[in-house]
Recover the amino acids of this structure.
């Protein structure tokens, strides 16, 4: 089986960001069923980046949490092509708030999209991939699936879970020649920040977590210099896609690589000590601001 081109598969979340650029790149050589909720957003991006709609990109409008439609789409793809070579679980979003300010529903919805939906799509493709004794599953997780920051309780834990299950599946599916990879990007310039769910009163000084909300507010509209362009990130993933053997974990971006390196060389408690003390410092800064 050739891993480089003429593959048939599914990529979720193609209206913007990494998924958008990846859908264009992959469908140059492969037949891609791209899942999106908002076709206009995708078309606007096509215009913005001056791309032509690739012939091999089949756009499917649906929510990744619509499992009935998802299952029948997978069945019909197999029926038409007699194979399903790859699944890329990319659709996802971030809930960023102090844990106490996240409602149960917001927390559960984050898990539904970032964790349970990818699992369902994996369930749909696995019988076919086992039957053909070939398949590749890429889960776009995050470097926040390997380490946490304050306000990331819902997002990071959903991605930690997806990283964990990617590894388990890699072991379980290896006898069937199915490879599973967790792609762990750092900060990428996409629509992610616009789509983030954050507390509604970020600058309400009376909230107990005012100091954390201010941190979110500061970072919501700006990117540090090291943040990677979405197209660049998609190019890295496309390069990975072309490899015959894919690794269990693949980090995208200098920050993701650096965080992972530091996490591995620094004593665990030292890193936690730094973050904890930084947060205490931020807290006292805003407490004194409140008083003045
Ligand atoms: N940007 C980063 O810094 C970063 C870092 C690490 C990991 N990631 C991960 O990378 C992946 C792609 O995100 P991105 O950065 O490219 O952000 P993005 O531009 O916001 O793209 C996310 C895509 O997922 C889609 N999506 C979300 N929920 C969906 C649902 N229920 N059904 C169908 N589509 C849905 C969005 O569609 P709509 O337009 O309809 O919402 C959008 O097309 C995500 O899993 C994210 O967690 C991003």
């Amino acid at each position: 089986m050739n891993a480089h081109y003429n593959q048939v598969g599914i990529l979720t979340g193609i209206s913007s960001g990494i998924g958008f650029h990846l859908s264009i790149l992959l469908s140059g050589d492969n037949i891609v069923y791209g899942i999106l909720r908002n076709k206009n957003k995708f078309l606007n991006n096509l215009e913005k980046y001056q791309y032509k709609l690739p012939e091999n990109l089949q756009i499917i409008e649906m929510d990744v949490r619509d499992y009935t439609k998802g299952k029948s789409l997978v069945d019909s793809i197999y029926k038409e092509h007699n194979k399903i070579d790859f699944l890329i679980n990319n659709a996802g979003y971030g809930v960023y708030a102090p844990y106490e300010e996240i409602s149960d529903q917001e927390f559960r919805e984050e898990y539904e999209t970032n964790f349970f939906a990818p699992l369902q799509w994996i369930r749909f493709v696995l019988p076919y991939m086992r039957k053909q004794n070939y398949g590749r599953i890429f889960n776009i997780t995050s470097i926040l699936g390997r380490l946490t920051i304050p306000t990331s309780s819902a997002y990071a834990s959903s991605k930690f879970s997806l990283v964990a299950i990617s590894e388990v599946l890699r072991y379980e599916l290896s006898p069937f020649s199915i490879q599973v990879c967790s792609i762990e990007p750092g900060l990428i310039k996409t629509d992610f920040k616009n789509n983030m769910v954050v507390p509604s009163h970020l600058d309400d000084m009376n909230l107990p977590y005012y100091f954390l909300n201010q941190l979110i507010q500061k970072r919501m509209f700006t990117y540090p210099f090291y943040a990677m362009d979405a197209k660049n990130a998609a190019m890295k993933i496309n390069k990975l896609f072309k490899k015959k053997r894919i690794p269990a974990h693949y980090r995208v971006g200098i920050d993701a690589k650096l965080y992972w390196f530091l996490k591995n060389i620094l004593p665990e408690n030292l890193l936690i000590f730094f973050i904890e003390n930084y947060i205490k410092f931020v807290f006292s800064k805003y407490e004194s601001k409140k008083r003045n």
User: Anything to note?
Assistant: The chain has ten helices and nine strands.
